[in-house]
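User: Aldehyde dehydrogenase family protein, Micromonospora parastrephiae:
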Amino acid sequence: MSERVAVRKTYKLFIGGKFPRSESGRSYLVQSSNVSLASRKDARDAVVAARAAVKGWAGATAYNRGQILYRAAEMLEGRREQFVALGIPGDEVDAAVDRWVWYAGWADKLAQVYGGANPVAGPYFNISAPEPTGVVAVVAPERPALLGLVSVIAPAIVTGNTVVVAASASEPLAAVTLAEVLATSDLPGGVVNILTGAITETAPTLAAHMDVNAIDLTGVTDASLATELEVKAAENLKRVLRPAPTDHDWSTDPGVTRMTALLETKTVWHPKGV
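Assistant: Predicted structure for Aldehyde dehydrogenase family protein:
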């Protein structure tokens, strides 16, 4: 009996809940695997998918969003060995699972902590409530490949935003495998979109896109590129999260800054009844 030929995997993009190849047809090799090389057109398609998902995701109950993030943790736990086989340390996979759970727990608590009734001089109720910013572009950190990725995606989506992630060009396998986890976690299509390839090609398109509301430059290590992206983002007054320090420790308590940075506050006045 002849030895069977193994099915060689091609790592594709994740856009709108589907796994398309790049419209350019390009790919590059990482660990002897073909990985799709996203183009500017792919970045624009991802923004369209993210925008289409905003209404449903932002309109979902906080409890439901928390359940879905917890489901992502469950699915990631079940595929632990797959990530280890890609070279991700087991401790990092465990930390990434715990990070999903941590953010899932905040889903229905954030409005209680950062919203509330304001004292006013008059016969009115004055209530402030946090709301999602909308579509967020994210440049993911190169390392740690998995924990860093989860640490920038989870705080953005738990609050009701949708994201387009430009994954690290040198560490894309963990990103696409995480996309496969999310695709089986009840996450609506378009809430998370992942592009692999050169961030120098996709990030400027995202920074300049008029339908992107905020951009997270955490994974940008080139100061000149960061400046270019900030200038492009200023065209439609995007909210900008500056690059993280190169020595940032992703294993520490993440705090709430990443969640609150991508929220807006809506204040409502309502007359008191007699």
